[in-house]
Specification:
β1 and β2 form a beta hairpin. This protein has 3 helices and 4 strands; from the N terminus they run αββαββα. Helix content is 39%, strand content 6%. Among the domains are: 38 residues, no CATH class; 38 residues. The strands form 2 sheets. Strands 1-2 form a two-stranded antiparallel sheet. A two-stranded antiparallel sheet has the order 3-4. By secondary structure, it is mainly alpha-helical.
Amino acid sequence: MSNFTAVFQMVRQRLIAPAIGNTARCYAVKPAAPASKKKKLGKLGPIMEKKIIPVETDANKLVNYVCGSNYLKTGQDVKIKPDAEYPDWLWSLNTERIIPLDELDPNSKQYWRRLRKLALRRNNQLSKLKKF
């Protein structure tokens, strides 16, 4: 048995030990980088790539459906109904411009909400001007 252990030790020293020693000494070598596209780095880290959002170009679908109303993976967009099926107040909504404060009725809730909003904006602008 001693002859067998001596041969085993000799094989181990010549074959196995150098292979282990070489890998153990290569810890400072950086691995080769994969040949892929590098991301550009900005001040705050990697820059996000722009996502391309598909745009609906089918005229028939644009006329008959509310495109983008279905946010689920399955299902369809909402179909547009005839005007008679919608409530009357929908057609009286203001879609043209924002009504100035002077034209609003001072007894309405909308007037006081707008006034409060303008006062908050004014106070915020004034607080930005302070040095402390």
